[in-house]
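Field reference: "sequence" (input) and "structure" (output). Example, NurA domain-containing protein:
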Amino acid sequence: MNENKTMNLAQSLAIDSQLRLPGSAGRLLKQIRDIEQVAPLFRDAGLVKAVPKPTVVNLRVAGIASKSCLDKALGGFIYASAAVRTDLLIEDNKVSTVGSDSVSELDDIDFEAQRKRLDLIEIRQAYLLLEKQLLSQEPCDLILLDTPLFLAREMIPLDRNAKHVEEFNKTKQVIEDFWDKYRASLFPWNNEGPVLAGILAERFSAIVSIARQDLRTEEGRKHLLISDGFNESNCRDELGSLEESLSGVGDTRFINGILGNYSRTIAFRMTENRARMEPAKQAELGIVGFHFRSARGGQIKMVQLAGDEPEWQSADFDLVASRLMVLDMQSKGNAMPLPQLLGYQQLGILPKFARFYRQGLHGALKNNDIEAGWLAGLDEGINNGI
């Protein structure tokens, strides 16, 4: 036999797929069976909850959507960043738009930590629209951001990136000033105040990490909000085997397996066993979250809320979750609340304005308009005796 016989790629792939297919199918089936076994346990322990579905909805909600984009210009970069707030009124299931506001920023930017700096700019713009909404005195039950409420460890800059450090400190100060000024007017510190929620995609590792703790111990349960209905007594013996059952299951497959239609996870603390969030003084007062899904085939989202127990109770989380699910719009596998979806439709023009800004910049430099304007101002100052 000729040991040096060659084989084309199609033949190689066909043989390899036949050899590996049974093993791959077996491993996937085992993971599915593992999830099916632990799903009832999660329900009985209160780790996954069905959310009451309202038949009649009356709600005032403000949704803030943010976006930024880059464009190349003259060997460097320019950026455009904007945020849009859309105010909706739902009366007896009838939806109407009652207001809108926006902020924007266009400028040049160098290469240093571009994406992270733009994320910080988006957060500042979202907080600006948030503050304007609160100052307007317009009644509101729920205010939604598409940015985190606080700055996580991955957003902290390296000391050598001076401009990134500057943006970070500026954003940190905006967040700190906002919470110092308005915390007392927001739920749960004010029972009549609006709920402020950050809606984030993916980020499944938090609840998966909690599920793999030994929830029979105080150390394992410290992540959970016991006020949200954790019930250890129903399944104390089975809780010890969770880590072994989930060891081969990926985060995405796990969370998709346990969350069904109109359901959410138990609320958990987002500051336990994690690097300190910023601003530290505000984050220490509590940051909690939960995952939710409005439809079986829909995208799973995570909501971030400020506060902790005993201010937050299970009924409060259910109310927030049900309102988010009512607002949830599924589009091409993605999900987002209706007011933010309307905001993103407006933000679609942002790349066009970035290109327009680039063209204007090229024209101004080509025609020497800026230098001519400086010189004209200088001549005017000289003529006025300056």
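Residues 48-351 form one domain.
The radius of gyration is 26 Å.
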